[in-house]
Amino acid sequence: MSEVVSLERHDVVAIVTVNSPPVNALSVAVRSGINECVKRAIADSEVKAIVLTCAGRTFIAGADITEFSKPPQPPSLHEVLAEIENSPKPVVAAIHGTALGGGLEVALACHFRVAVKEARLGLPEVKLGLLPGAGGTQRLPRAVGPELAVKMIVGGDPISASDALKNGLIDEIVEGPAAGGEAFARKILAEKRPLRKLRDDDSKLAAARADRSIFTNAVAAMTKKARGLEAPFAAADAVGAAIDLPFDEGLKKEREGFNKLVTGDQSKAQRYAFFAEREAAKISGVPEGTKPRNVERVAIIGAGTMGGGIAMSFANAGIPVTLVETGEEQLKRGMGVMQKNYEATAARGGIPADAPAKRMALINGVVGLEHVKDADLIIEAVFETMAIKKEVFGALDKYAKPGAVLASNTSYLNINEIAKETKRPQDVLGMHFFSPANVMKLCEIVRAEKTAPDVLTTAVAVARRIGKVPAVVGVCDGFVGNRMLAQRGKQAEKLLFEGALPQQVDAVVTKFGMPMGPFAMGDLAGLDIGWRSRKDRGIKSEIADALCEAGRFGQKTGKGYYKYEGGSRAPLPDPEVEKLIDETLQRLGRKRRQVSDEEILERMMYPMINEGARILEEKIAARPGDIDVIWLYGYGWPVYRGGPMFYADQVGLKHIADRLSHYAKETSDPSLEPAPLLKRLAAEGKTFASWARESKAA
Questions:
Q1: Which one of 84, 456, 461, 468 has the minimum C-beta count within 10 Å?
Q2: How far is Cα 645 from Cα 444, in angstroms, rounded to an integer?
Q3: Are 126 and 189 in contact (CB under 8 A)?
C-alpha cells in the first residue's frame, strides 16, 4: 500500500484518501497510490461507489512542479485519469481547500464532483507559462462551456464553489468533504444515476460549434493583456481543439501544446519566478522559529499618494488603519482620493458595489501623531527627505507603545540614520512600498543594523497578509530596485548625448517586454522632481534641464520628452524635442551618431545586471532570486524573462562581461567595467544560479 494514499471501505462505499502534506501535490507516490487504490476498489465486489478525497488543508492543489525538469516516472497522470474515468463504478471527487491544475484535472476525470462552500477550483498553469496537460483543456469546456473555460484556463484564476455549482463544474455543495462525498455517493447509488463521463458529453460545446464567435470573443477578452506571453495563446488554441476535434484528437493537440511550452524558455522563466517568490519570503540570518509580533492595529503617518495607497492595502485585507496627518486640509484631501479610487474600481466591476463604503470604514483619518498610541505597526509615509523623516521618528518615542514596529516607507534613504533618532532602534526597519501602493505587489523590507529578528519576521508576515510579495534587502542608497534602475537611467541619458532619441530607446525597452521605457516613465513621474533635486546638489544634465527650462515637465504639462494631446496619456514623439537635443549637442560640440537597437538593449540591461552582481557581493540581497522578485513585482520586468539575474544566466555571463568592458572603453565610463563577482563567474564559466547554490551549501 502507498504511504500517502489510503483506502478504506464503509460497506458499499470505498474512500480513497490522499495524505501528502502540505498540498497533496501529484508526485509519483500520489499518482501511483491513487491508481493502486482505485484499481483495488474496482476489483472489490462489495464496493459499489468510490469517493476520492484528501486529508489536510486542501484537495490536490496541483502537479509536483519539481518533477517537470526530471525524466517522467510511471504512472503518468493520463494513466491515472483513464483508470478513474473508465471505472464501471461511480467515482466522486470530494473537494475542500483548492482543486488546482492537475488536482482539478483529477476531479474532472471523476464522474461526479462535490465541494465544501469555501473551496476554490481552477487551472492556473498559464501562470507558470504552461497549459493544463492532462485533459483540462478538453474536459473543462465540456463541464462549464467554452466561455467560462477560456476565462479559467487563459486567465488562470480559480472560481468559488458557488460559481462552480452554478456552471455545472460540481454537482453539490456539501458540509465536510469525506462525509459529504460519501453521502452523495450513497444518494447516486439509490437513484441509480448514470455515470457522466465528460469526455463523451459534448452538449455544452454545441452553441460554440454553431457560432464560433462565442469562443473567439472570449479569447480576445482574455488575451488583451497577454503581450509577449506564449502560454495564454497556446491555451486558447487547446480549448479551441475541444470545440473542433473529437476528444482523443483534442487531447493529443493539448499534449503537443504542453510539451512545447514545458521545454520552452518562457515556462522555465515563469517556473523559476514561482520558486524565487517563495524563496524570497525566507529571511537569511534569522534564528529558526523566530515568531512575528502580533499586529492587530496599524497606523500610517502621511495621507499623500503613498500613505493613502498603503492604507488602502490594509483596508483591502480587512485590517483597520489609523491614518495620521498634520492638518485637516491634507487629511480631507487624502481621504477623498482614496474614496474616489475605490469608487472608480467599483464602477469598473473590480470590487463589489458595497466595498468602497466597507473599506473606507476601516480607515480612521485623524490629525496629530498622538493617535499612533494603540498601533502595533506604524508606517511612516511622509515626504522623502531625511530631515522630515528624522523628525517623525524622533517624535515616535513619545507616542508609540513599547514593542510597536516602526517602519519607514523610504525608497532611497539610510534606515540606520533614521533609526538613530529613536531610543528603540531594534524596532525600526524599512517597508518600501511601490507606487501605486494599493496595486503594486512588491514590498522591499529593509533590514537596518539593529533591526531585531522578530521585527523582520513581523514585516514579512504583514506584507504577505496584505497580499504583497516581500523581499528582504540591506541598507544602501536606493536599496536593490532603485539602485539598479539608476544605472539604467544613467545610460538612457548618455544615449541621448550620443545620438539616440527618446522614442528609439523606449521602443527597444518596451519591445523587450517592460511596460514603459525610461523616458515615458520620466514624463509620468514628472521631470521637475529630478530637476529640483539636481539644482539642490549642483548637478547639470543639459538635455533634461533644457526640457524643464522650456516648461516641459512631462504628462502634467502635456509636454516632456514626448507630447500628450488632449489630456491623453499616450506619448507622441515631438520634433521640438529632437530640435532641442540637436541644439544642446551642437552647443556642447558633440556629434550625433547612429545607435543600433542592439546597443541600446545591452546598455539598458547589462549595467543593471552588473549592479545586481555588486549588490550580491555586498550582501545587500541574499540571493539572485530576491533581485529578480524585486524587478518582477516592483518594476514590471516581463515574467517570461524571469528577472534580470535569470536573464543574465540565459544570455551568458561571459558575453555580458565582454560587452560591458567594450562599452566602458567606447564611452570612457569606468563604472561599466564588470563587477568583480560578474568577472569571476564569467571567467569560470559559471552562472548566478550556480553561485547561489554554492553560497547556500557553504
A1: 461
A2: 17
A3: no
Instruction: Please report, for residues 199, 340, 447, 472, the alpha-carbon distance to residue 286 in angstroms, rounded to integers and kept in the order given.
Output: 52, 41, 11, 11
pLDDT in the model for residue 69? 76
Task: Provide the grid cell at 665.
Answer: 572603453
| Phi, psi (degrees; rounded to nearest 5) at 244 | -90, -25
472: β partners: 445
| Nearest of 92, 570, 304, 106 to residue 562 by alpha carbon | 570
DSSP H helices in 15-61: 28-43
Rg (CA), the chain: 28
pLDDT value, residue 2: 66
pLDDT digits (tens, 9 = 90+) for 161-218: 999 999 999 999 999 999 999 999 999 999 999 999 999 999 999 999 999 998 999 9
List residues with catalytic annotation.
105, 125
Backbone angles phi, psi at 548, to 5 degrees: -70, -35
Q: Is 16 in contact with 5 (CB distance < 8 Å)?
A: yes
Q: Which residue is listed with cell 469562443? A: 215
Given a contact cutoff of 8 angstroms between Cβ atoms, the answer to whether 120 and 160 are in contact is yes
322 closest CA partner among 397, 245, 400, 438: 400
Determine the angle formed by the axes of helices 518-525 and 502-512, rounding to 10 degrees.
110
Closest CA to 623 of 128, 288, 292, 278: 278
Q: How far is CA 151 from the centre of its chain?
A: 19
Q: What is the spatial distance between Cα 647 and Cα 603, in angstroms, rounded to a whole number? A: 14
Q: How many CB atoms lie within 10 A of CB 408?
A: 25
In sequence order, the β-bridge partners of residue 113 are 93
Does the pLDDT at position 498 exceed 80? yes
DSSP 168-209: TS-SEEESSHHHHHHHHHHHHHHHTPPP--GGG--GGGHHHH
190 alpha carbon, distance to own chain's centre = 47
Cα angle 238, 125, 216; round to 5: 35
Between strands 442-446 and 428-433, the pairing is antiparallel
Burial class (CB in 10 A: 0-12, 13-18, 19+), 344: exposed
Pick from 407, 406, 459: nearest CA to 292? 459
- Cα–Cα–Cα angle for 273, 276, 280, rounded to 5 degrees: 140
SS3 50: strand
- What are φ and ψ of residue 288, in 5° steps? -50, 140
Residue 231's CB: how many other CB atoms inside 10 A?
A: 26
Q: Which amino acid makes up residue 639?
A: V
d(CA 370, CA 352) in angstroms, rounded, equals 35
Q: How far is CA 435 from CA 163, 406, 412, 521, in A?
A: 33, 20, 14, 12
Q: What is the pLDDT of residue 623?
A: 96
